[in-house]
């Protein structure tokens, strides 16, 4: 579902945390409106798999009825009951097609199925990124604790204690610097 507003793909305030590092552009203010629109669409599609989809129709009593893409016709419908029903999409030629390639609007930058699959893989990988989902400092601390525990094999207990105290002191100092 596309977010509202002007150039929604470039706004980090409304972007999921996983996607923010990828859309931190420091040159956006130098772009003209058409370039900002293109970049916003590209970012939304490539990093978020957020594609424009044509309205969906079904056949009821020989008539084509729109079930999505229009708030007036789809707000009172339970779309789950249409899972196993053949869906149609209105093509640019004015004919209703049921082929999946007509599902996506022509305004999308990524036109073919392989490009859209690649965007979906990117979005899924970003959503599973441990450093983006969790708190990176906590994750790094846990990994370092694991490293310290496994390092004990080759060190004397005294050296291990000194190293642990030094690490904890530096982590406290870094925590105070970040606050």
Molecular structure report:
The protein is α+β, with helices and mostly antiparallel strands and 179 residues long. The chain has a domain at 135-178. The protein is 43% helix and 9% strand. The protein is built from six helices and four strands. The chain has helices spanning 33-48, 71-74, 113-127, 130-133, 136-151, 157-178, and strands at residues 56-60, 63-68, 88-90, 96-97. The chain has a four-stranded antiparallel beta sheet with strand order 2-1-3-4. The longest helix has 22 residues, at 157-178. The mean pLDDT is 75.
Topology record:
Elements: H1 33-48, E1 56-60, E2 63-68, H2 71-74, E3 88-90, E4 96-97, H3 113-127, H4 130-133, H5 136-151, H6 157-178
Antiparallel strand pairs: 1-2, 1-3, 3-4
Helix pairs in contact: 1-3
Ranges where pLDDT stays below 50 over 5 or more residues in a row are none
Radius of gyration: 25 Å
Shape descriptor: elongated
Q: List the secondary-structure elements in sequence, H or E.
A: HEEHEEHHHH
Notable characteristics:
179 residues, four-stranded antiparallel beta sheet, alpha+beta
């Amino acid at each position: 579902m596309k977010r509202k507003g002007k150039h929604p793909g470039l706004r980090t305030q409304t972007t999921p945390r996983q996607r923010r590092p990828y859309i931190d552009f420091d040159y956006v203010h130098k772009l003209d409106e058409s370039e900002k629109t293109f970049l916003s669409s590209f970012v939304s599609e490539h990093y978020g798999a957020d594609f424009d989809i044509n309205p969906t129709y079904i056949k009821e009593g020989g008539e084509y009825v729109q079930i999505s893409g229009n708030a007036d016709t789809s707000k009172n419908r339970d779309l789950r009951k249409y899972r196993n029903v053949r869906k149609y999409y209105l093509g640019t030629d004015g004919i209703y097609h049921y082929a999946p390639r007509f599902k996506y609007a022509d305004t999308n930058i990524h036109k073919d199925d392989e490009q859209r699959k690649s965007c979906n893989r990117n979005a899924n990988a970003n959503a599973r990124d441990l450093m983006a989902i969790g708190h990176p400092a906590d994750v790094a601390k846990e990994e370092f604790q694991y490293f310290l525990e496994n390092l004990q094999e080759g060190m004397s207990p005294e050296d291990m204690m000194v190293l642990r105290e030094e690490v904890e002191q530096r982590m406290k100092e870094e925590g105070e610097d970040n606050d």
